[in-house]
Amino acid sequence: MSFSELGLSEEIIRAVTEQGYSAPTPIQSQAIPAVLKGGDLLAGAQTGTGKTAGFTLPILQRLAQRKHLTGGARQPIRALILTPTRELAAQVEESVRIYGKYLKLNSAVIFGGVGIHPQIKQLERGVDILVATPGRLLDHMQQGTIDLKQIEILVLDEADRMLDMGFIRDIRRVLAALPTQRQNLLFSATFSDEIKALADSLLNAPAMIEVARRNSTVNVIAQKIHPVDRNRKHPLLSHLISSRQWSQVLVFTRTKHGANKLVEQLSKDGITALAIHGNKSQSARTRALSEFKNGSLQVLVATDIAARGIDIDQLPHVVNYDLPNVPEDYVHRIGRTGRAGATGEAVSLVCVDEHDMLKGIEKLIKRSIPQEVIPGFEPDPNARPQPIQLRSGNAGGRNQGRRDKPAGKTAGNGNARTPAPQKSSAQPAAGKKPRAQIPALQRRPAERRKDAA
Ligand code: AMP
Fold first, then answer.
1. Is 251 part of a structural domain of the chain?
2. Last residue of a domain, one of 339, 365, 391
3. Which residues form the domain of 253?
4. CA quadruple 196, 362, 85, 434: dihedral positive or negative?
């Protein structure tokens, strides 16, 4: 199967060929013809499958083929792509520009955490394809600086993530501002009941495609557990990076504080590292990501939400420094490696506190992950588990530009226990008031995620 057999125009094929793509990926061979036909689409696809081009290419083709029908002074926005995070929004819009470089279509990206006025100016100049995160899009709608009445195509990208992040009400408000006659495409890695309900209300007789089985981990990724004591994780990570000469490693921590601390520790070991998380400014995140992509930064340390949508070709190593609070995040994390057919390695440093989390993950992916103890880092067989701290101290300032709702009354929850503070590497710094430690399963996933943002 080739891109031209899918019915794409010469201009688009030229742009795709310049990217070095010789053949469509499975999601592309199925999604492209379906979208070109004009109907709605429900697609199950994870990051790394080539899904972005799967919807971008046919959207470009449809918009380029058909002039917009209604007249009007200003060029209307014709396609709207909603994504959960700023990073993903920026990457999707970059793809639109790359694949559409030989077409006369304009695109723009709008997200929070940066000034709104340049975005207003850009919208005034006219945009065909808009990529946006829900929060900032609503800001524009409320200020009357955006007109969505002529949207022909709507895409919800990583819809499951958007729901996890609590965006459902924002999405519904955006949907209410769109014309009823339009094409809808919904992409999601997983299909919870909530996603099914959204799909039912949004999509009209959709074509359905699924390329990666629900909650399956991609086979080309080699997964391994390194059991280790909780206070030996940092030396073990430095050892792995140095002894195996890893030059580009994405490391996940559970909290923002944990990410900052690890960056400091690695830097002392002479390993270049930066963190991206919700307390970092947009410019700091963009800089870290670009240094990581161009190879000048060895280690990027990220929390789950910040890492969502990071698009780096053939990322060779992903390290779970802490296991995620939510088992599904494990699948998303390791999906960052071994993309588009390349092989990758995902290792998890697991201490005694995380054994239940590991069980949850293995149950979800329906396999047990091989374990390897690294000589010199053997865990203490008598170590007892301690409660895991799910929250960071909010050391780095406020969460910039996020529309997160208040975290809710977690500590006031009738079931919540507040264990006495214990000595652990995950304890807050001396002098700080210890935060309540709420067992993960007593809190809703959205709450747990907000803490890690
Ligand atoms: P995505 O799932 O959209 O995040 O894409 C994953 C990665 O695959 C991106 O880095 C794309 O540049 C790359 N990619 C997309 N389509 C193809 C293709 N047909 N052949 C090779 N690589 C591709």
1. yes
2. 365
3. 221-365
4. positive
26 CA → ligand 1 middle, Å: 11
Same domain, 9 and 95: yes
Indicate whether 8 and 96 sit together in one domain.
yes
> How close is the Cα of 50 to the center of ligand 1, in Å?
4
Atom index in ligand 1 nearest the CA of residue 95 equals 12
Retrieve residue 6's tokens: 């899918």
96 lines ligand 1 (CB under 6 A): no
Contact present, 105 and 64 (Cβ < 8 Å) = yes
Q: How far is CA 64 from the centre of its chain?
A: 29
Is 391 within a domain?
no
For residue 140, the number of C-alpha atoms closer than 13 Å in the C-beta half-sphere is 27
Bridge partners (DSSP) of residue 349 are 226
Question: Is the CB of residue 353 less than 8 Å from the CB of residue 387?
Answer: yes
CB of 335 shorter than 6 A to ligand 1: no
| Of 305, 334, 365, the domain-final residue | 365
The angle subtended at Cα 335 by Cα 334 and Cα 338, nearest 5°, is 95
**Domains identified in the chain, total number:** 2
Cα distance between residue 93 and residue 305, in whole Å: 19
Using a 10 angstrom Cβ sphere, with 0-12 exposed, 13-18 middle and 19 or more buried, the burial of residue 87 is buried
Ligand 1 binding pocket includes 50 (Cβ within 6 Å): yes
Q: Are residues 66 and 203 in the same domain?
A: yes
Instruction: List per-residue pLDDT tens for the chain, 453 residues long.
Output: 889 899 999 999 999 998 888 889 889 999 999 999 999 999 998 877 889 999 999 999 999 997 655 555 567 999 999 999 888 999 999 999 999 999 999 999 999 989 999 999 999 999 999 999 999 999 999 999 999 999 999 999 999 989 988 899 999 999 999 999 999 999 998 888 889 999 999 999 999 998 754 344 444 567 899 999 999 999 999 999 999 989 889 999 999 999 999 999 999 999 999 998 878 887 888 888 888 888 889 999 998 877 765 666 557 789 999 999 888 888 878 876 654 445 678 899 999 999 999 999 998 887 888 899 999 999 999 999 988 766 544 333 333 333 333 333 333 333 333 333 333 333 333 333 333 333 333 333 443 444 344
Same domain, 197 and 61: yes
Distance 216 CA to ligand 1 centre (A): 19
Is 169 domain-assigned? yes
Q: Domain check: are 113 and 165 in the same one?
A: yes
CB-ligand 1 contact for 337 (6 Å cutoff): no
Distance from Cα 88 to the centre of ligand 1, integer Å: 14
Give the number of other CB atoms < 10 A from CB of residue 50: 21
- Residue 52 CB less than 6 A away from ligand 1: yes
